[in-house]
Amino acid sequence: MDNSSRTPHQATSGDGTRIAYEQWGAGPPVVLIGGALCTAATDAPLAALLASQFRVFTYDRRGRGASGDTAPYAVEREIEDLAAVLAAAGGSACVHAISSGAALALKAAAAGLPITQLSVYEPPFTADPASREEPAAYVARLRELVEQGRPGDALALFLTETGMPPAAVAGMRQTPMWAEREAVAHTLPYDHEIMGNGQVPVEQLRTIAQRVVVVDGGASPGWLRDAARAVSECLPRGRHRTLTGQTHEVAPQVLAPLLADFFAGEGRRKD
Fold first, then answer.
1. CA distance linking residue 255 with residue 47, whole number of Å
2. pLDDT, tens digit, 9 for 90 and up, residues 35-51
3. The overall pTM is greater than 0.70
4. Residue 189: CB partners within 8 Å, gap ≥ 6?
């Protein structure tokens, strides 16, 4: 299905913020949630692959793309944004989310949003309570750069902190991709607020009643794969899957068949 098949819309969140979303295809509803620096456009390739079987909704999280933003930020407002998209989808839907968007989706499910089934790809928690807690100095500096109107420097800091060599960051600054990511870099503190201290939220996960598949890439860093397994083990109806050879930048054509099978299987599975 090509991009001409998608339809743009707006939903209104609980605080009045307009949330831009697009609808693809026909069938049971599926909502896609992106991670840090992602917009609805990021999810377009996956949406196009799923649109032959599902009515797929992609949306710009608040502060990104065509969506509005209302201060002050709170994770609860992002949960309300998702609730507005679910309402537009007919009141409930399956949800797939990646990275910090996966952490948001798990919070939303725990909060009681009408998510019928949930897929999460590599929520970037840590399964080791002694390591990788969010460095307070880094997060404070990130916020400071955003407040100073320096989104490019905030983006560079984020990329370096997440493992990209400084030389590669400098090279990326010269590409068209940089401008696209810089345009949403002011939302990076939002993602850090969603992640909290970075630890697997064990007690929260134990309250989620939905079927959840937690997916990782076989070529991803070990700490991400450990976190995916830990998250699945905390969920009452969780299962874990690994996509061989994939990284945190998962290929849509590899992910789509897994999602289609999982979301179509509610009626024939008992777990």
1. 11
2. 999 999 999 999 999 99
3. yes
4. 73, 139, 142, 143, 146
User: In b/e form, how buried is each residue of 139-157, taking b as 16+ CB within 10 angstroms?
Assistant: beebeebbeeebbebbbbb
Which CATH number does 3-130+199-268 carry?
A: 3.40.50.1820
Residue type, 228: A
Q: How many CA atoms lie within 13 A of 250 on its CB side?
A: 27
- C-alpha dist (Å) from residue 160 to 167, 168, 194: 10, 9, 20
pLDDT at 131: 62
Listed by start position, the domains of the chain span 3-130+199-268, 136-191
Predicted pLDDT at 266? 54
Structure confidence at residue 133 as a pLDDT band (50, 70, 90): low
19: nearest Cα among 56, 68, 57? 68
Helix, strand or coil, per DSSP, at residue 129 = coil
